[in-house]
Amino acid sequence: NKSMKFSHLNLFIQDRIATLKLNRPKALNALNKEMIMELHQAVEFLDENDEVRVVILTGEGEKSFVAGADITEFKDFNKKEGRALSATGHISLFNRISNASKPYIAAINGFALGGGLELAMACHVRIASANAKMGLPESSLGVIPGYGGTQRLIQLIGKGRALEMMFSAKMIDSETAEKYGLVNKICDPEALIMESLKMANSFIKNSGDAQAAIIRVVNSTLEGGQGFDSEIKEFGERFGSAEFAEGTKAFIEKRKPNF
Ligand code: DAK
Question: Given 33, 173, 182, 187, which residue has the most CB atoms within 10 angstroms?
Fold first, then answer.
């Protein structure tokens, strides 16, 4: 067993599973700069630690995972600061988790709003307690999601539902989130950590090297906005291929293609 303490974060490692718990319950675990920095440090540490195979990310208490970015902190930003902070957040934390060398399970123990839902979506899979509420309310504050939320939400639940959530700024409950595919599973609040450990143990049975490679490959098309460019390039490539020539020839000759 090993545990490490940060000022707004607890890290506990047991049986190759690390549990990272956000601990600023008075502000419903709203993400401030210090927490983002501490999370970055913890993620770097966990990535290098070969003893750890899976990470569970959760919030202290039964009320909130993370109720968003700390509104008191970002309300006075100017355009330059906003852009710089978004880029730093993407690189130092959100993409860092999503490109980690081991699976991250978000155990959503209550509100996951704005930056909090973005944090949960940066993890590889999500389990929510039945009382959890999720949303991207940024447009109600006159901003947009700035930590990858616009991209990760459409990947997880599709464009139509994602746009409705972002336009309405409304929260959805955990049942709706499960129906949408935003969370993999829901459970009673008191079973959340146990269910997360169960899932973590089901991952540990399999190759960690293979899982690291799976993360790299899955992310290679999902991240960096390369999807459309890649589609155009790959579409073009088909035109020089023998199979494309055969497929179109067969259609014109009214026969089955011979691939
Ligand atoms: N920031 C700061 N404090 C927060 C907070 C937040 N996001 N959420 C809650 N708190 C604080 C409350 O102010 C309150 O503090 P005290 O008044 O006790 O000092 C305490 O937590 C308890 O909250 P409530 O009293 O409001 O609790 P309720 O049960 O009544 O309501 C609630 C729970 C979750 C519905 C409510 O607290 C709420 O609406 N919270 C705000 C949710 C929200 O809009 N979150 C922000 C989403 S926008 C950026 C990148 C990304 C973003 C921003 C910038 N850059 C790159 C610059 C992301 C933006 C967002 O996350």
Answer: 182
- pTM for this model (two decimals): 0.89
Name residues contacting ligand 1 (CB within 6 A).
27-28, 30, 67-72, 74, 77, 82, 85-86, 89, 111, 113-115, 137-138, 141, 143, 146-147
What is the token pair recorded at 254?
Answer: 């009214």
Label residue 214 exposed, middle or buried (CB < 10 Å: 0-12, 13-18, 19+).
Answer: middle
Q: Rounded to an integer, what distance in angstroms lies between the CA atom of residue 12 and that of residue 42?
A: 11
User: How many other C-beta atoms lie within 10 A of the C-beta of residue 90?
Assistant: 17
Query: Which residue has the CA at smallest separation from atom 1 of ligand 1?
Result: 70
Pocket test for ligand 1, best of 32, 60, 71 (most atoms within 8 A of CB): 71
Q: What is the pLDDT of residues 183-221, one digit of tens each?
A: 999 999 999 999 999 999 999 999 999 999 889 888 887
Place of tokens 């860092």: 96
Q: How far apart are CA 189 and CA 110, in angstroms?
A: 9
CA atoms of 179 and 49, how far apart (whole Å): 35
φ, ψ for residue 232, nearest 5 deg: -60, -45
Q: How confident is the model at residue 19 (pLDDT cuts 50, 70, 90)?
A: very high
